[in-house]
Amino acid sequence: MRKQKKKRLAAKGWKVGSVKEFLGLSDEESAYIELKIRLAAGLRRRRQEKGLSQLDLAAKLQSSQSRVAKMEAGDPSVSLDLLIRSLISLGASERELSQIITTPRPHSARVEKGRESFLD
Questions:
Q1: Which member of 14, 23, 24, 49 lies 3.0 to 4.6 Å from 113 by CB, making a disulfide possible if both were Cys?
Q2: Rounded to two decimals, what is the model's pTM?
Q3: Burial class of 13 by CB neighbour count within 10 A (0 to 12, 13 to 18, 19+)
Q4: Looking at the 3D structure of the chain, how many domains does it have?
Q5: CB of 113 within 8 A of CB of 15?
Q6: Distance of alpha carbon 66 from its chain centroid, rounded?
Q7: ∠ Cα 110 79 85 (to 5°)
Q8: 80 burial level (CB within 10 Å; 0-12, 13-18, 19+)
Q9: Residue 6 falls inside a structural domain
Q10: In a domain, 72, yes or no
Q11: Which pLDDT tens digit goes with each residue over 44-90?
């Protein structure tokens, strides 16, 4: 978020923080969620690079399009195992998996005032 926007929001009583702070997550919980989000984004990127639709990937995995959509969204019902197996089925090497896991994603700032909160 731009400094000017942060100042403007702070002057109106808004507070900027992280999702970890907002949800009260432990370091371990936060790391797990970040890992899952990175793998989900990597899956989407890899699928698109291969020119596959979610339906195509679902057929390859013997699953459903809605399940693939949940995987790419980082849905809590999707296991890390399924995300990794799906990436491998798309031809991701150990090196590529390592890159997905170690490349930090840009963090979204959270802005809140009172009971309302928004991701920027």
A1: 14
A2: 0.74
A3: exposed
A4: 1
A5: yes
A6: 17
A7: 120
A8: exposed
A9: no
A10: yes
A11: 999 999 999 999 999 999 999 999 999 999 999 999 999 999 999 99
